UniProtKB/TrEMBL annotation:
GO terms for molecular function: steroid dehydrogenase activity, acting on the CH-CH group of donors. The gene is ifcA. It comes from the Bacteria. Its cofactor is FAD. This is Fumarate reductase flavoprotein subunit. Keywords: FAD, Flavoprotein, Oxidoreductase. The keyword Flavoprotein applies. It comes from Pseudonocardia autotrophica (Amycolata autotrophica).
Amino acid sequence: MPGTGFDRTVDVVVLGLGDAGAVAAVTAHDAGAQVLVLEKQTAERHRPNSRYAAGFFLVPNDIDAACRYLTASYAVSGEDTAVEPELIRTWAVETAANPAWLTAQGGEYSVLDLHGEHDALPDHGSVTVHRVLPSERAARWPGCPLFGLLRSLVDERGIEVRFGAAATGLITGPDGDVLGVRVDDGGREQRIGARRGVVLAVGGFEGDPALQRQFLPVPRAWFYGSQDNTGDGIRMAQQVGAELWHMNVWPGHFVARFPGNGYTGGTGIDVWGTGRFGPDPDRAVNPGAVFVDGAGQRFLAEPGRQHAAHLELLGMDAQRLSHPRIPTWWIFDERRFDKGPLVPTYSGPAGPVQDYTWSCDNVAELERGWIRSAATLHELAGLCGVDAEALTESVRRYNASCAAGRDEEFGRAPSTLVPLDGRRFFAVPLYPGGSHTVGGPRRDAGARVRGVGGTPVGNLYSAGELGSIHGLLYPAGGASLAECMAFGRIAGAAAAAADRTCAS
């Protein structure tokens, strides 16, 4: 889209006001640039993916080992020939710098006893998970405390944010360099010039079924986050010749869907009723649960690998032309039903952002038909459309494993082996999904968007989940928020430092 003649010109234009966009804007502003943030959501409905998160962020404790760990994760998915050592080292160095940066901004965090998720890979202990703590400054924006803190930083600096302003395309000059942005501002098109650069931080394509059908290996995945993430950055980057990567992968989970709740995405589940992914260390308080496929058979150590469990669901039966594990059925008894909400209420769409509410006792959801219930496993199987004898046998074998204190079939953690022997049984259908996609324009170590020929697209930068460094294997909880901060800083600093004259 070549051209000049702008309605307005600033130094740096940041597209998107999530964690990555906020950090990029703050960094560019602090470097002396005049910054304008364009956010397509309205101020009243501003719910970026960052706001749905729980505030975890990954921190390398050994730079060299963390580089080896991420490199090994690329090799598993066949990307070993595409590894860029400079990019991976930049990721490790900059994510390791996040705690100090947060502290300098007045943020506080705790350090958790959680490390690299994929213990089959070397150096998985080289990263540690931290969590941002709530603060008064963040409380104005209910949801993730990291987002609230970053949002306060933008406000405190007086950085201009235009809500309800959707970028529709990038404006380029004769040499292909990005000069500015086309914007739909409430139905009125404007051309905003950027003297130094444009930062794409608009998220992925969780809310776009067409892009999902094009790139993901299942007909549809269901994401819990902003349904306004519709691939805008991908389309804009493609228009100016960007190379795409990681389009067919995402950090996944088993996700529930509850049609009719006013929210079109998916929702994570709380298997143990602990308010977290893992079980409570006290075995006595962990309710029992199994996951079964469409044939009523268990197929993994529930609930699976945290950010890779969805990979267990993707296989297709080529004879029957179906996905036999979509849906998967979460089977439990009244121990879990009575323990508390079946979905997280500390994050996600049923959390503080309140896309919809979930009752404290699950009764309203049972009455709405979101949860299926029966007095016997045979009856429950009929409600789920699975083989009754197979489901009953699966639960019988599982209960025998509980009695023996070890899961001979799948090696599930002994602390989670609590039998299903209640007076009533329940089921919820589960689907592949997760928090966000990672595909988008490929970036280099300087957060520059890379063109299909290998050279950067001039004056165009990216940060966050749009073209994330993460591929098939998500390294650990909080990897995305860590990347948002790290590459938000890199992109903001690089854009502010550029020296270019843009016609106005």
